[in-house]
């Protein structure tokens, strides 16, 4: 199965999902608010707007503890938190200034939708595996799997 097919199967499987663009002049904080990005637990995939077939990052929001409780930080919080010691608003602006000048495209979905519950880490791993199978590497911004 290709990466695109795997992503589409998850995207359509979970009812709470969305996508949005982020342009160099925009703040990720403002865009996730305007687009109504859920703060549920799930997975997000980031693409360069120049190549919507091959992601530059696959990430998750939500970690489950041994006792079944969930740690804080859903997708909205994860996208607006800190990345590599830098506020995400600054991190994304720097990425777009240096490499992805036409902006970024985000796709996200919640993996706990009331009907079905999948661990975000499992879904993230399956997407990373599909990427590895097809492209023989991880997305450029994913450091390890």
How many DSSP H or I helices? Answer: 5
Strand content: 15-25%
> What's the N-to-C terminus distance?
19 Å
- Average pLDDT, to the nearest integer? 94
| Biggest β-sheet description | 4 strands, antiparallel
- C-alpha geometry: globular
Q: Could you give the order of the helices and strands?
A: HEHEEHEEHEH
Look at the helices and sheets and give the structural class.
alpha+beta
Strand line-up in the sheet with most strands: 1-6-2-3
Q: What share of residues is helical? A: 25-40%
Number of strands: 6
**How many domains, in number, for the residues?**
1
Give unreliable regions as ranges. none
Can you describe this structure?
- The chain is α+β, with helices and mostly antiparallel strands and 145 residues long.
- It has one domain (3-135).
- Helices cover 35% and strands 20% of the residues.
- It is built from 5 helices and 6 strands.
- Strands 1-6-2-3 form a 4-stranded antiparallel β-sheet, sandwiched between helices. Strands 4-5 form a two-stranded antiparallel sheet.
- Strand 2 and strand 3 form a beta hairpin.
- It is globular.
- 32% of the residues are buried.
- The mean pLDDT is 94.
């Amino acid at each position: 199965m290709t990466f695109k097919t795997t992503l589409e199967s998850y995207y359509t499987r979970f009812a709470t999902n969305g996508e949005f663009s982020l342009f160099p002049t925009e703040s990720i904080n403002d865009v996730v608010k305007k687009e109504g990005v859920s703060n549920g637990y799930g997975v997000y995939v980031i693409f360069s707007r120049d190549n919507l077939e091959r992601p530059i990052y696959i990430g998750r929001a939500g970690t489950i503890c041994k006792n079944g409780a969930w740690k804080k930080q859903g997708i909205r919080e994860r996208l607006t938190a800190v990345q590599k010691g830098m506020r995400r608003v600054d991190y994304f602006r720097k990425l777009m200034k240096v490499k992805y000048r036409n902006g970024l495209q985000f796709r996200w979905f919640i993996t706990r939708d009331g009907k079905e519950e999948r661990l975000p880490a499992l879904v993230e791993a399956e997407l990373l595996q599909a990427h590895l199978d097809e492209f023989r590497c991880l997305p450029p911004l994913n450091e390890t799997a």
